[in-house]
Amino acid sequence: MANYHLLLHSWGPEDFEKLKAKFEAAEGLPDLPAAAMRVCEAIDKGTSGAADLERIVLADPALTANILRVANSSFHGGGSKQTTTVKGAIMTLGEKSIRSIAVSVWVQSLVQQSQTSPSFSASRFSEHSMFVGFLSKYLLSVASKNRGAKSAWNADEIFAAGVLHDLGIALVASLEPGLYDHILRKAQADSTDLNVAFHSTFGKPVQSLAVIALERWKLPKMFVDVLLGYSDPLNAASEVDALCCVNLADNLALNSGYSFCDWPVKVSLNEEIISRVGLDPESIPEVLELTSRHTREFVAAA
Ligand SMILES: [Fe+2]
Known about the structure:
Blueprint: H1 2-8, H2 16-24, H3 34-45, H4 50-58, H5 61-72, H6 86-93, H7 95-113, H8 122-147, H9 155-164, H10 167-175, H11 177-189, H12 194-202, H13 207-216, H14 221-229, H15 240-255, H16 271-277, H17 284-301
The structure holds fe (ii) ion (FE2).
Fe (ii) ion binds next to helix 8.
């Protein structure tokens, strides 16, 4: 009966504050694992050395395995130079990168383990998120090489931000499954994607809910800046180049079939953003094929 009620519930802008309150409530959001908190604290305070960080990471076998896996993926500059130890990964990548990789890994596993709406596909979420993470990172390197773009965010931070960019949708599927189903049906009826369907229901972006989670977890502010800025990067107050990379990566993912939806979503690409990134339009099919291959390999190995 409860599900029947949820299916019939009609959502509108007047429900947004209630939704926000649910995200803000202590029992609403899942907690980050203790090891995640300790890594972030250790790096934020700047009081721990590489040896302390290594100890924290090694205490969590899943985190250790995932950091090595991400650090060695070819999109992370792996390939010929393999990193076989956590110490090596910390020395090679740096603390900010380790924190970013750890955050992306934790959020992915959080989504995989959460109880969500049956219509939410954790594997599609993972594929979309990783695709956008890998491609955002690649595009930032293109922007830097071809356009001299500068960003205060490093390559691994932009990767993690790409992985997190749709966190709001995953949290809605977990905290409010009936709403997720409503948004999914609306997106299907409009042949659009879930972010657009959420916005047209509430008049607010779903990212504003994800930001509540990021602040609760005390994650670096750059993730908040990405979530709030990537959908309209040309009007962002700062980091326009990096935000253009995440925006373009997201739209290219949707156009390549890496979306949450069973139906094809086609998004028109903004030429100003493509030109700002410095991506040669003729190279797009090859870049997508490469990103797709890395994503499939990465997700299959998880
Ligand atoms: Fe997305």
